[in-house]
Amino acid sequence: QVQLIESGGGLVQAGDSLRLSCTASGLTFSKYTMGWFRQSPGKERRFVAGINWGGRKTNYADSVKGRFTVSRDNAKNQVYLQMNNLKPEDTATYYCAADQWGAGSYRSIDYESWGQGTQVTVSS
């Protein structure tokens, strides 16, 4: 079955950087658009960044544009989220998600598979 495993979260200070990774198995990775979402306690899960199956098209939430960069390595079945200049409001559980031949949707409902999440905490 499809498995998505996130890693790289942690506790950092404002202004620091983190790189999240998501390793996929059980699917033909190059057929999937990959998305990163985040969720804080009591809030809905929200889109952060997405990258299409070929890696040539990316999109970002306005709140992270210019600070976060999404990339992928289809040979390794991995997608990454480089997060720079982190802010306390970036604190959340971060999830990667897969959408076969997806168009980079902002909607979580359009993604078929999800990882278990990795916690990112940014202190001020």
How are the secondary structure elements laid out?
Layout: E1 3-7, E2 10-13, E3 18-25, E4 32-39, E5 46-51, E6 58-60, E7 68-73, E8 78-83, E9 92-100, E10 113-114, E11 118-123
Parallel strand pairs: 2-11
Antiparallel strand pairs: 1-3, 3-8, 4-5, 4-9, 5-6, 7-8, 9-10, 9-11
Question: How many E strands?
Answer: 11
What is the N-to-C order of secondary-structure elements (H for helix, E for strand)? EEEEEEEEEEE
Q: What proportion of the residues is helical, as a percent range?
A: under 10%
β-strand amount: over 45%
Largest pleated sheet: 7 strands, mixed
Structural class: mainly beta
Q: Taking all residues together, what is the mean pLDDT? A: 96
CA-CA gap between termini: 40 Å
Give the CA-based shape.
globular
Instruction: Please give the radius of gyration in angstroms.
Output: 13 Å
Unreliable segments of 5+ consecutive residues? none
Figure out the total of helices.
Answer: 0
Short description:
This protein is mainly beta and 124 residues long. The chain has strands at residues 3-7, 10-13, 18-25, 32-39, 46-51, 58-60, 68-73, 78-83, 92-100, 113-114, 118-123.
Features:
124 residues, mainly beta, 7-stranded mixed beta sheet, 4-stranded antiparallel beta sheet, 0% helix
